[in-house]
């Protein structure tokens, strides 16, 4: 072995130390910055979600519930008073854009509440009562039941955000979901279901994707968007488990007459397909919207972007199959790809039982 002087070994040791520093720095960067990069990617995804897809649409901009922003609507808030009518209420009066007295036609579970009072009175939710004076108020209600404007209470707006909803889609893969295909449809014509950039993407059809959770009375919220002009899809609930789309369907079809959202064509987004039409078209093609379904016994209600579109009671004789009659028994939830031209994304699916 050569007799090297200490001054000759020092550079080699320095090089080794420098290499070690590079390795340690690389490991630190991978461990420390990867979560940041993922977070930034998530923020980019969120920002992208706000950008409309460059496709035609019957509606230029999304409509949102009374006193709501688009961001609040996508975040789950519902407007229980539309600012102009008594739709969704019984025993109420609407005078000069003010709602006085009355009770909601449906029940609501635990929720955050924002209310703008014009005349003092009491807001009753289930067994909870709140005495309110004129002005804006915020409460967190843990009750279950309808909302009642009592003791002379008059309001200009009432917003609720359902709580305790659990995610059925994890944003990564299709764990907890399974395909339900039409048996007579060739393999090559069946829809594709995959997770792309944190959303369930489906193309083609007809076909369905079924969650294993079973609910009867429920609150269900689904954030979705169409990726093609007049793409057709839907959200089924109270389905007969494992059967091909044998449930109630909340329609997805962003279509209206002459560009007038007050004249939706057929069963537009938010309608209960083949049962109850939506009041208006709210959601444009290519833009995210939030569909909310509240099913309570025979009473079904839907909101899109916080605007109530359906308030319907199923008075048909009871049947196991909701296509044939009233079903209140628990069933599964299915996402629908309607036909070969279907092209949709589902960003979130959350639900809770309505007890």
Mean pLDDT: 88
DSSP strand tally: 26
Our count of domains comes out at: 2
Separate helix tally = 2
CATH class category name of the largest domain: Mainly Beta
Please provide a written account of the structure.
The structure is a single chain. The chain has 2 domains: 70-162, Jelly Rolls, CATH 2.60.120; 166-353, Jelly Rolls. The chain has 2 helices and 26 strands. The chain has helices spanning 6-49, 70-74, and strands at 78-79, 89-90, 93-95, 98-100, 103-104, 111-119, 121-125, 128-132, 135-141, 147-150, 154-162, 166-167, 177-180, 192-196, 199-203, 207-215, 218-226, 233-239, 248-252, 256-257, 260-264, 289-296, 299-304, 307-313, 331-337, 343-353. Strands 12, 14, 15, 17, 22, 23, 24 and 26 form an 8-stranded antiparallel beta sheet that branches.
Question: What structural keywords apply?
Answer:
355 residues, mainly beta, Jelly Rolls, 2 domains, 8-stranded antiparallel β-sheet, 6-stranded antiparallel β-sheet, 2 helices, 40% strand, disordered N terminus
Question: Care to give the gist of this entry?
Answer:
The protein is mainly beta.
List the helices and strands and how they pair.
Layout lengths: L5 H44 L20 H5 L3 E2 L9 E2 L2 E3 L2 E3 L2 E2 L6 E9 L1 E5 L2 E5 L2 E7 L5 E4 L3 E9 L3 E2 L9 E4 L11 E5 L2 E5 L3 E9 L2 E9 L6 E7 L8 E5 L3 E2 L2 E5 L24 E8 L2 E6 L2 E7 L17 E7 L5 E11 L2
């Amino acid at each position: 072995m050569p007799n090297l002087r200490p001054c000759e070994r020092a550079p080699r040791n320095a090089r080794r130390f420098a290499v070690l520093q590079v390795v340690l720095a690389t490991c630190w960067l991978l461990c420390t910055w990867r979560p940041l990069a993922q977070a930034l990617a998530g923020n980019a995804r969120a920002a992208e979600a706000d950008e409309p897809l460059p496709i035609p649409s019957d509606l230029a901009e999304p409509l949102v519930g009374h006193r709501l922003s688009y961001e609040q609507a996508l975040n789950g808030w519902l407007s229980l008073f539309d600012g102009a009518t008594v739709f969704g209420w019984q025993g109420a009066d609407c005078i000069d854009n003010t709602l006085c007295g009355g009770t909601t036609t449906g029940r609501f579970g635990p929720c955050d509440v924002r209310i703008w009072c014009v005349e003092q009175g009491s807001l009753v939710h289930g067994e909870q009562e709140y005495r309110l004076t004129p002005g804006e108020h915020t409460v967190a209600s843990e009750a279950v039941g309808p909302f009642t404007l009592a003791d002379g209470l008059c309001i200009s707006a009432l917003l609720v955000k359902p709580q305790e909803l659990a995610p059925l889609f994890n944003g990564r893969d299709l764990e907890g979901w399974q395909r339900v295909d039409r048996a007579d449809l060739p393999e090559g014509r069946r829809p594709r279901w995959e997770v792309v950039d944190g959303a369930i993407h489906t193309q083609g059809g007809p076909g369905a994707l079924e969650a294993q959770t079973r609910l009867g009375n429920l609150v269900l919220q689904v954030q979705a968007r169409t990726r093609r002009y007049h793409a057709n899809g839907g959200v089924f609930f109270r389905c007969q488990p494992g059967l091909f789309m044998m449930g109630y369907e909340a329609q997805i079809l962003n279509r209206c007459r002459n560009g007038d959202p007050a004249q939706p064509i057929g069963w537009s987004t938010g309608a209960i397909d083949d049962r109850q039409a939506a009041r208006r078209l709210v959601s444009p093609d290519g833009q995210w919207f939030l569909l909310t379904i509240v099913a309570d016994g025979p009473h079904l209600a839907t909101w899109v972007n916080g605007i109530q579109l359906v308030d319907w009671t199923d008075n048909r004789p009871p049947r196991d199959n909701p296509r044939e009659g009233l079903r209140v028994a628990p069933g599964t939830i299915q996402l629908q790809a309607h036909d070969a031209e279907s092209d949709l994304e589902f960003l979130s699916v959350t639900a809770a039982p309505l007890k």
